[in-house]
Amino acid sequence: MSGGRHVAIIGAGAVGVISAIEALREGHRVTLIDPGEPGGEQAASYGNAGWLASHSVIPPAEPGVWKKVPGYLMDPLGPLAIRWSYLPKALPWLIKYLLSGWTAARVEKTAFALRDLLKDAPLLHRKLAEEAGVPELVERNGVMHVFPSRGNFDNDLGWRLRKKVGVEWLELNADEMRQREPDLHPRYTFGVVVEEAGRCRDPGAYVAALANHAIASGAKHVRAKATGLKLSGNKLVAVVTETGEIPCDAAVVAAGARSKQLTASVGDPLPLETERGYHVMIENPESGPRSSMMASDAKMVVNWTNKGLRAAGTVEIAGLEAAPNWKRAEILRNHLLGMFPKLPKDIPASRIKTWFGHRPSMPDGLPCIGHARASRDIVYAFGHGHVGLVGSARTGRLVAQLLSGKQPEIPLAPFAPTRFL
Q1: Where residue 146 sits, what CATH number does that domain have?
Q2: Which residue segment(s) compose the domain that 351 sits in?
Q3: Do 347 and 212 reside in the same domain of the chain?
Q4: pLDDT less than 50: residues of the chain
Q5: Fewer CB within 10 A of the terminal residue: the chain, N end or C end?
Q6: Could you tell me if 250 and 385 lie in one domain?
Q7: What's the pLDDT score for residue 280?
């Protein structure tokens, strides 16, 4: 199979626009299909925490997490909340989610697969940012994890597995942390710095710049909502949208949390769910971290962006249509104020911005990257959960390799959509 196919890429988020760039590089013609503005506030990419964490190899579910489910149901403001009204619909996904992390061996297998996908991601993103003319938006200067005690770190299965897959880090005692982060609350007494990781200064602007780069390189952008895929036998003939059909030779489903309807249209009912996420951002903050960090007790990332100090994290299982629970953003704000005591408690509301969006998540913490069963003209690239931005760089390369019939640069068996079919 040679280049020169007309590829319709459904979704202009991080995965979609990078897939477009890499498909163009392979000699294909590309049409990007998305009803929204690339990098706009409606997109998961926009509200991302901004971490390019190549060490984010641990899936959300770990052994014993099933014991916490009653607490998740009772606490609508906890780090992981499940709305009672959505529980019947979410239950099949939740069962698969719990089973995927039932044993340490299963989590370890996932960690090795994610390491393949994420390794060197900050470098790949840096090169893409340079190509798109926005090198200042991607920094490769490490990230910090902070803990109330050394014990919190030692008892974490995730860090033992990170070591096993080859992640390295620098450990900091309380004095060393205070030298690096003088504004951080003294309750944090142990930290680790993962120097290979990076950050994005403005995820929305980065995705927008990548989309502009793809369009300048020859991609066409069609503002439409895709509703299905049209086949003739095992050959793809068009993407169906609300405004008509777009003829094409190949298609990439990279529509994030809204990919489920598209895969079902060609006979692949995949268990995709949205892990709803929130962020809060303080403009012109009086205090904060010198580096990007994650607080183990708050389960949130704090990252400097060009627009302010952003705190992002937590998960809410409530579907695509339910209204946001803005109290969850208030919890993030309170955690942020608690982490950095020099931040004033009476920051004017005009300087505090909140956001809510949809992480597209498969129950086992691994994205779907591979062909549809009905046709090898269709490539799936969605379901990245908490690693969408960082994982998008290599995913785009893999998509282009699949479109061109080339050997993928990493083993794709762990990401095969057929694992759920």
Answers
A1: 3.30.9.10
A2: 64-108+138-197+273-360
A3: no
A4: 1-3
A5: N
A6: yes
A7: 97
Q: Are residues 175 and 320 in the same domain?
A: yes
DSSP structure class, residue 135: G
User: Which stretches of 141-208 are assigned E, i.e. beta strand?
Assistant: 143-147, 170-172, 190-194, 198-200
Annotate 302-311 with b (16+ C-beta within 10 A) or e (fewer). bbbbeebbbb
Mark which of 360, 382, 402 sits at the end of a domain.
360
**pLDDT tens sequence across 286-322:** 999 999 999 999 999 999 999 999 999 889 999 999 9
CB burial string 132-169: b at 16+ within 10 A, e below = bebeebbbbebbbbbbeeeebbeebbbbebbeebebeb
352 and 288 inside one domain: yes
- Helix-strand-coil split of the chain, %, nearest 5: 35, 25, 40
Residue 53 falls within a domain, yes or no?
no
pLDDT recorded at residue 68: 85
DSSP 344-411: -TT--GGGEEEEEEEEEE-TTS--EEEE-SS-TTEEEEE-BGGGHHHHHHHHHHHHHHHHTTPPPSS-
Among left, alpha and beta (phi > 0; psi -120 to 50; other), residue 287 is beta
Residue 289 sits in the same domain as residue 347: yes
State the total domains in the chain. 2
151 occurs within a structural domain: yes
Same domain (yes/no): 355, 378:
no
Question: What pLDDT does residue 2 have?
Answer: 45
- φ, ψ of residue 245 to 5 degrees: the values are -95, 145
Q: Which residues contact 325 (CB under 8 A, 6 or more apart)?
A: 76, 77, 81, 316, 318
Alpha-carbon gap, residue 389 to 8, rounded angstroms:
21
pLDDT tens digits along 324-333:
999 999 999 9
